[in-house]
Design goal:
This protein is mainly alpha-helical and 128 residues long. It contains 4 helices and 2 strands; from the N terminus they run αααββα.
Length: 128
């Protein structure tokens, strides 16, 4: 059994703790579980709509400015800069995909791969 921490050490630990920050979402404190679920649905709907709007804006920007302008950046008020980014993805043949999956299965079975689990919430629309 671990002995209790002495008072002086406890005070040192408490003094070292960062200051408590203000709750950034105080409006959620009084919501019921059902209200939180409804709020989550509303936020998800807004995010989907905003993402569609952002994509439409990006298309307009890409048609308005040259590739070079976007590569080097366009200054925007408030200290913002709009720049294009390139990310490379790879598409593999079915044979290569199957070989990769086979190597992964072997590593999982032999213990050479470590399982990492993450949990997230998904919002699905139920049609009746």
């Amino acid at each position: 059994m671990t002995p209790p921490i002495n008072r002086i050490d406890l005070e040192r630990v408490l003094l070292a703790l960062p200051p408590e920050t203000q709750d950034p979402f105080p409006h959620l404190a009084n919501l019921t579980a059902v209200d939180l679920l409804k709020r989550r649905v509303w936020i998800s709907t807004q995010l989907k709509s905003l993402e569609q709007e952002r994509k439409a804006i990006d298309l307009e920007i890409e048609e308005t400015y040259s590739v070079a302008e976007l590569k080097f950046g366009i200054a925007i008020s408030g200290g913002w800069i709009m720049k294009s980014n390139t990310r490379t993805s790879w598409e593999y043949t079915p044979e290569v995909i199957e070989e990769i999956k086979s190597i992964q299965r072997q590593a999982q079975q032999s213990g050479l791969a470590n399982e990492i689990k993450t949990t997230h919430l998904r919002l699905l629309q139920h049609y009746t």
